[in-house]
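Support reply, case 0932

Customer input (verbatim):
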Amino acid sequence: MTIQRRLYQRRLNTGLALAAAALFGTPAFSSVEANTIRVPGDVPTIQAAIDTAVSGDVVIVAPGIYTERLTIADKAITLASQFYESGDPAVIGQTVLDGGGGGSVISVEATATGSKIIGFTVQNGEDGIAVRTQAEVLNNVFRGNNDGISFTNGSGVVRDNLLEGNEDDGIDFDQASSGLVENNVVRSNGNDGLEIRLHNYNGPTLNITIRGNTITGSQGDGIQLIDYSRLSDRVLRIEKNLIQGNVDAGLGLMDNGRTSEDFRGASIPERIYVLNNTFSDNAYALTGGDNLIALNNLFINTPVLGIKNVDGSSIAAYNLFWNNTAHYEASNVDTNTTKIVDPLLDASWQLTASSPAVDAGTAYFVHNGEVVLDYPPGTFAGGAPDLGWRESSSSRYSIPSVSPETRTASKERSIPSCER
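Our regenerated output:
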């Protein structure tokens, strides 16, 4: 059957399904078989393929440079390069979406909940991808945009991407946004690696988790949190990241909607977990927080100050400080569990076998009567968690490479090895 005939039949089936849903309350797409639409083989442009697709369809784009600004609306689809089928990381660099210097390269609108973007190089846009709903952004490269990925009242998963050389931020969270940012390389962006604005919000808790990333070389902060006038219903978890070589703070907290970093160490009242990270070579490592739990981290090689104004109801315990001009100031530091000693890292900021940070952390911690950390058995090697971003004898939290086994388990895995 030709693609034109298949698409005609799909539209007919979709109309029948919608009619059945209206009459009998059945799911609108329950009888509509998912389809793969290929660009340019079946449809000449990517936007035409998106417009043709219905929920559940997969749009596969052949290698090439496509100067289009794309919108996904009124459907949940997968938009992917041939990496989705082959697992070949080289395809990511060969399939380029170019915004032509204006607007968002891809807009995922509020009516496109459940869409996925997989396996492209996205460049030359105001935003590489603008997300206004729940979506997944997997295995892409973002370069030369203003912001790489921007969430506005959106949510979802950002995993196994490379975000580098964007003019402003690698990833933005604005308004009532949440999500998981995991196993990405975020490097050499013009302002912050990640910028998260805690706009005034009350409602179901918004969870933002930043885990297993390398966040390096930002011209501003590695991660910047910007607070507003009221306590919002948010919880942030910053865990098992390497935050290294950022010009300003590794994790900088600002308030009153201000983004120009001045190292004020704002008294943000939202709960922030800072767990098992390695902070190295940032001007400041961590500034601010009135309800911040900092456990099992390394704060090293800081030319100005390790941690500042981690006070109020905050606690910093089971951390290691080394080679900082000053280790901490105006902060609630548990000196009984704090180490000040060379962590003996290798060139990749990982612990060597003889490191005093091996098995030096805690899997369980109670603060002010609340259990604030409870790592279950099997999530760390040895008798206790190591300090820092990676266990010394485990690669559990490393960015995975593509192998036959991982291709079989999931086609949505590694960024290109040449891009690391």
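We compared this against your earlier run and they match. Two observations from our side: Residues 3-24 form the longest helix (22 residues). The chain has five helices and 37 strands. Please reopen the case if you see a mismatch on your end.
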